[in-house]
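Could you show me some protein's one-letter sequence and the numbers that encode its backbone in two labelled lines?

___
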Amino acid sequence: MSSTAILLLLLATLATSSATPTNTTTGEESPSAYEILESYNFPMGLLPKGAAGYELDQATGKFKAFLSGSCSFSLEGSYELKYKSTISGYISQNRLTNLSGISVKVLFFWLNIVEVTRKGDELEFSVGIASASFPIDNFYECPQCGCGLNCGSRNPSSKKGLVFKLRTNPFVSSF
């Protein structure tokens, strides 16, 4: 094979592996990970900016979302979030379950977020033994790795604060 043919093959491979997912059956562009979230009644701000792709089994709801690397940021200085490069779980209308790859720092401990449920205009995040509810409008904007929602802002306190309500899970005992 000539060097020109190898170069053309390499360019064709790079062109087909662009950031926009393509349906291999129809050749049409597939929806983005953010559009998939919205189709299940979730705001796109659950994922940080720059999601590189996803896999979704529509029959079971099993999914994987891919970031270009691990990601962490603070929200309003109160919460630290960490995303692994691969986030997985199951998605259905108004519910994300069996999540892995997302954790939140509560006091001095890192806890895995295992479930997100939409209840009206609130999102409830569960770490198993406790849950916290936030207004959905806090998630209309995607946070950015490293700086969250305060990127380029001189006054971080000028951003809208998160409303936090802690509720213990009534199905978990502390025996």
Remarks:
- DSSP finds two helices and ten strands in the chain.
- The chain has a mean pLDDT of 76.
- The beta strands are 51-56, 62-67, 71-75, 79-92, 95-106, 109-112, 115-119, 122-126, 130-135, 165-168.
